[in-house]
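Give me structure tokens for this 180-residue protein.
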Amino acid sequence: MTTLAVILLAAAAFAAGPTAARADDDAIMFFGNIDVTPDTPVRDAVCFFCSVHVEGKVNHDMVVFFGNVRLDGQVGHDSVSFFSSVRATDNSSIGHDMVSFFTDTHLGENVRVGHDLVSMLGAVHAPQSISIGHERVQFPGFIVSIPGFVIFIVIVVIICERRAHRRRMMMQGYPFPPRI
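Here you go.
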């Protein structure tokens, strides 16, 4: 009876678990490069520790972690990059949002972003001819570095004061200051 209960419990766990991801037209790569050419479009491009070069079209999303992005074509939906340099050449387009974290973004002439352009802790280098559908949001890195520098100074002052306090407590046991 317990064997049947274990088998039924295991079957229920497998049935309730997540289904496998489909990768029919997707380009998913670890430690390799993804090249999207005009004759081989992909649905999604996901890259970890590698680079993506788009000359054709990514029909949906492009996500890059720790690599480089060079966009010479189109991304149908969103482009997201973490710790990756992003370069979109002239007349490239992103259908919805372009988001970059901890990286610089270089946009060429007449680049079109359908919705929002978001840059967190990085810089955006773009000419006036770019087209952004909704909002351009930039959160530069120096905003984070200033509070970090203040916290560092406070920690250094606390450590110095704590050491000076210990020295004063140690010296209280001597009848006169020792000669050095």
